[in-house]
Here is the input.
Amino acid sequence: SHIHLIVLLNIVCVFVLTAQEEIEYVFDLIQMDGCKFRYFKIRSGDGAWAKPQVIEFFDTGSRNMFVLEAYFSESSQNSVDLFEKFLVSTPFPQKKIRLRPDNAKGFVNLKRPINELNIKYSLPGGFYLQPDFSRIHAPKDKAHLESSHRGLHYYEMQIIKHFEDRIAKMEPGNIYRNGKKEKISVTYLDVDLETLRQSGLLESYRRQHNEQKHYYSVDGKTSAWVPKEKFDAGLAQYERLSFSADDVRHFTKYGYDKIKAT
Here is the structure.
């Protein structure tokens, strides 16, 4: 069936990237981005139908996915919420780490919390989190994430199948791929955002992505590796530090629109 074919494609997990991409090592570059679901809508807070999206933090060198969560927008509050989860999701190496959000306003609001984090934790030759914002309209700056998005779109069919008893209706829709309009079917699932989050489906996708072998073409050469294994091996080469939940809450308060720094 069509669904089984897409599930099979997801399990194979072949990501081929552009030959121009440069090699990045573990924790050299962390990318953050949002990706809107294509094939289903759920109930928003006011009961209207809306397509949710995920925001993720992603290690470029290993392709290991730290965290991803479902939201309805890339707002300041949502991006800062995920930044908090990222900071407590992993130990960090004592080295300079570039963090590349995109240009959405919510992500720009991470500049102050990143600065506060560096004031307390950065040391010469040790940990330092360097904001490295993507250039506007430069997709190649985020090519690794674009590849990850394709895998997520395949996975949507598993989400729909999981909630098949909650299907309210199906309607035709359109997407644009490589500049061409394509007709698709959009499934309306009578669930809310919290139900999607609590289903475990997104965590299952993250774990599946991290623990399966993928094939990548980097700098013109094709290689295969398991993201989690490559990430763990890279991190083990460094002295490490971890952030406390209390410190994280203190730093990230500067990222919310309504809180003015004194």
